[in-house]
Structure formats: structure tokens, C-alpha cells
Design goal:
The complex is a heterodimer. Chain A is mostly helical. Chain A has helices spanning 5-18, 26-61, 68-75, 79-82, 91-121, 128-143, 152-195. Chain A folds into 3 domains: 1-63, no CATH class; 77-122, no CATH class; 125-196, no CATH class. In chain A, helix 1 crosses helix 7 (152-195) and helix 6 crosses helix 7. Helix content of chain B is 50%, strand content 12%. The chains are: A mainly alpha, B alpha/beta.
């Protein structure tokens, strides 16, 4: 058995988490609350560090007074906690965050996600892969055409598009399962290699 | 028929136990199943292999602890490749756990003699998600006046002469989120981008690889294992592959048997009054 107390804590918490698979119980609930608490605590510490390095130090050491502008806008997020009459102030930082995010994304989304993807779809039909990509793209697009009265060709394309979408979602679901198995393997390494040495390190 | 009926009513907990056993036994007694290396991993490896000693690379470690089992083996393998080539790594992150994960990744290399500030640096967490990526790509020293260890970034030799992402040779990200924001914010700097992704979001990144916007991707734990094979340095990824294969086999069998049970016993079930046939 491991002599590292951190491994013991992590292993016992892992078992408490997985005990939910048997049935919901007090150990699971305790672990769930602990997890949320630790995650919140860690985020608060990171937030505090961020404020110190991005606001306090530039302000006190370099005299960069303009860092107060985003800091004050950020503080407005907490306005509703002062009183309901100040709640409207929260809209200012939300608007700033949403506007900057939308502007940054929109600036490059057209070129990188629309034009480049269109260009990548214009391929020579010389290989089977390319033919499948071209037909799959057309079929999927035809599934989403709602403004034209359906005719037999469009209906056939839409039906094929439905299958392409189903295959894509199936691949995503399969990949999702693969990811969950990887996470479980990670926990088994902790339990049966780091804690109880049943798995030999390679 | 009775067998299939009972199969359809099997307790979930039996499947959980079978799944854990199907993963644990191959981990304890490896089966040695062959692992083929996919095109995505080969492509990523060859792009990174072209780096020269002294080349600087931005490495964004933006995966959460909960997704680490899927992505960490990739990060470990690629970091080994970078440092073996003599490249220098500039670590950044946009998730709160990131700085801690970066420190754990560089610890063995620091003990092996890699110098902080010269061979690598940990710039720490920058809030804002996509906004943060856009900000540090545009002006890394402005986005990070100090690093995670409290040093002024203007004094770090590894950042000398670097202003934007266009001044480094490559951008590598490891993420549990989708790759859209990296494509939107980094491709404009015309440097190769490699993505280390969790399995769940990897299919979404495929169009970007086909379009050449991502130079390569590694997909989940399997991608990490494949990279370890190319590096001739088997680690946790390779050790997990037998278990993953057996887990998948069990799930496929469960899906097939579950469907068989459903279809074979469906006609035997009484149809409720008013139910749609």
C-alpha cells in the first residue's frame, strides 16, 4: 500500500464517488459536496491571484491607474448583492464581456470557419474519400433546406443527409464512450497502481 | 427466449462490475494487442519533428483535471519530443487548474536539468477563454506582465524577441473544450497548429485538419499511446490500450446483446391499451 497520504485521500474519494454506481448514499453526497467546495475554493484563489497580478501590482508598483477601469466594471457583477436597486449595474460588465467575445469571434469566424471550410469542400472528385466528402456535404445541406417545396430529388438527398448526420453523431457518441473509458482507466491506475500496487509500472 | 428476456433485465451494477474487471485484468496482465499508428498522429509527429533546437513553441495546457486521463499522456509524450529536439516551451493556460498541471508536467524535466526561464516558462492562467487566447496571441508580454512564479516576463530569456504568436515556430494546445476558438484566433498567425484533444470533441476538429487549418491532432488516450510508440517511449498511454480495447469489446457486446434482447422479446410483450403500435 502507498505511504503517501495524498494518494490515500484521492483513492478514498474516488471510491466514495464510484459508490454512486451501487446506489446513492451518504459517502457519495459527502464527496460531492467536498468536490464542489474544493473546486470553488481553488477558483476563488485563482481569481484572487489574478486580481493581484493584473490589477493590484500594476496599480501600486507601476502606477497604471487605467487597470482600475476593467476592475471597476468587473466589480459591477457583484452589484445585485449590495441591493436590488443596484442590480442593473450588472448589465454593464455582462454587455462588455458579450460584446468583446462576439466581436473577437465574428472577426475571424467568417474567414476561418466559413470561407476556409467552403474552400476545403471544393475538392477534385478523384478519390473515393473525396466523393464521400462531397456527397455527404451535399446530402447534409439538403436536409436543412426548408425554404423550397420538397421534390423527389431533394427528399432523397435529405434522407441520405439524415443518415450522414446519424453516422456523424454515432461517431461522436462512440468517441464519447472511448473518452469515458479513458477516464475510468485513469482512476484504476490511481487505485491499483499508486494506492494498491496490483498493476506493475511499465 | 427466456434467456434473452432475462438478459434485457440484467442489473446495471453487473455491467459496471464486468466493465471494471474487463479494464483491470488487462492492466494487471497485459495482452500485448498490436497498436497501429493513425494518420493524424503520424502527421502531428512529423510536423513537430521538423522543429530545430532553440525553436520556441507556445503550449496551451487548457484541459481540466477531470479530463486529464484522456489528454495527459499526449502532453507528456509531446513535451518529451519538444525537449528532446531542444525546442523551448512557453506554457500558457485558460483554465484555472492549468498552472498546477503545467507545474506537474515540467517537474521531471526541471529535475533533469531544463532551466526555468531559459528552456521553458509557465505564464499561468489567463481568464477569458477565447478572449484570453486572442489577447496572448496578439501580445504575450502585455497579456502576461508576470509569470506564474512571479517573474517579470520582460526579463525571461525564453520570451526574448517574442511579441505575438507569429514570432514562435508552432502552437500546440491540449484542450477538453472544442477547437473552434483556437482555429478562430491562432490560424491568422500562419504557424502550424497541433491539437491534443479529448475523444469526445475530436470528431468536431476533423474538418479543420482536412482544411489544413490544424496541422495535426491527437485523439484522446489512443493518440497519446500512438505518439508514445512513434517516440519509442511507451508510457501510460500504451499501458492503457489493452484495457481500452477490452472495455470497448464489452460495450459492443452489451449493445449487440441488448438489441437482440429488445427485438426478440418485443413481440412477446403485451401492447398496452392506447399505446402506439
Amino acid at each position: 500500500m502507498s505511504s503517501d497520504p495524498k494518494v490515500w485521500v484521492a483513492s478514498i474519494l474516488t471510491i466514495m464517488a464510484y459508490s454512486y454506481l451501487f446506489k446513492e448514499n451518504e459517502f457519495y453526497k459527502a464527496m460531492e459536496h467536498l468536490y464542489v467546495g474544493v473546486a470553488a475554493g481553488y477558483t476563488v484563489v485563482m481569481g484572487y491571484t489574478n486580481v493581484v497580478s493584473k490589477v493590484w501590482e500594476p496599480l501600486t508598483k507601476k502606477g497604471s491607474w487605467w487597470v482600475l477601469i476593467p476592475a471597476v466594471i468587473g466589480l459591477c457583477l457583484f452589484a445585485p448583492y449590495i441591493g436590488a436597486r443596484y442590480a442593473w449595474l450588472r448589465r454593464i460588465p455582462v454587455a462588455v464581456i458579450a460584446a468583446i467575445g462576439a466581436a473577437l469571434s465574428a472577426r475571424t469566424a467568417v474567414t476561418e470557419q466559413f470561407v476556409q471550410q467552403l474552400r476545403a469542400s471544393m475538392i477534385s472528385l478523384t478519390t473515393l474519400d473525396n466523393v464521400i466528402i462531397a456527397l455527404g456535404t451535399l446530402a447534409t445541406l439538403s436536409y436543412f433546406i426548408f425554404t423550397v417545396r420538397p421534390n423527389p430529388v431533394l427528399r432523397a438527398g435529405a434522407e441520405a443527409g439524415k443518415w450522414v448526420i446519424m453516422v456523424t453523431l454515432g461517431a461522436a457518441f462512440g468517441a464519447g464512450i472511448m473518452g469515458r473509458i479513458s477516464l475510468l482507466i485513469g482512476r484504476l491506475f490511481l487505485l491499483f497502481q499508486d494506492w494498491i500496487p496490483l498493476i506493475k509500472p511499465r | 427466449m427466456e434467456f434473452f428476456k432475462r438478459l434485457g433485465e440484467i442489473d446495471n451494477r453487473v455491467i459496471y462490475i464486468l466493465l471494471i474487471l474487463s479494464l483491470l485484468i488487462p492492466l494487471m496482465k497485459p495482452l500485448g494487442l498490436p497498436i497501429s499508428v493513425g494518420a493524424h498522429t503520424r502527421r502531428s509527429f512529423s510536423v513537430i519533428d521538423k522543429l530545430q533546437a532553440g525553436d520556441r513553441v507556445i503550449v496551451d495546457i487548457s484541459y481540466s483535471v477531470s479530463g486529464a486521463a484522456d489528454v495527459q499522456p499526449q502532453a507528456v509524450a509531446i513535451l518529451k519530443h519538444l525537449f528532446d529536439k531542444g525546442a523551448k516551451a512557453i506554457f500558457v493556460t485558460t483554465v484555472t487548474e492549468g498552472p498546477m498541471i503545467i507545474e506537474s508536467l515540467v517537474k521531471p524535466w526541471e529535475q533533469a536539468g531544463k532551466r526555468y526561464g531559459v528552456d521553458f516558462c509557465n505564464l499561468g492562467f489567463l481568464a477569458g477563454g477565447e478572449n484570453a487566447i486572442a489577447m496572448y496571441c496578439r501580445d504575450i508580454k502585455k497579456a502576461y506582465p508576470t509569470d506564474y512564479r512571479g517573474n517579470a516576463t520582460s526579463e525571461l530569456p525564453v520570451l526574448e524577441g517574442i511579441h505575438s504568436a507569429g514570432d514562435v515556430k508552432m502552437y500546440i494546445f491540449f484542450s477538453t473544450q472544442n477547437s473552434d476558438m483556437y482555429v478562430r484566433q491562432v490560424t491568422q498567425y500562419k504557424i502550424p497548429i497541433i491539437g491534443g484533444l479529448i475523444n469526445t470533441i475530436a470528431p468536431q476538429a476533423e474538418p479543420y485538419v482536412n482544411a489544413g487549418q490544424l496541422a495535426g491532432i491527437l485523439v484522446g488516450l489512443r493518440g497519446g499511446a500512438e505518439y508514445e510508440i512513434l517516440m519509442k517511449s511507451p508510457g501510460m498511454g500504451v499501458a492503457s490500450m489493452d484495457a481500452q480495447s477490452m472495455g470497448h469489446l464489452l460495450i459492443i457486446m452489451s449493445v449487440v446483446l441488448g438489441n437482440l434482447s429488445y427485438f426478440l422479446t418485443r413481440s412477446a410483450k403485451p401492447v398496452k391499451k392506447g399505446a402506439v403500435k
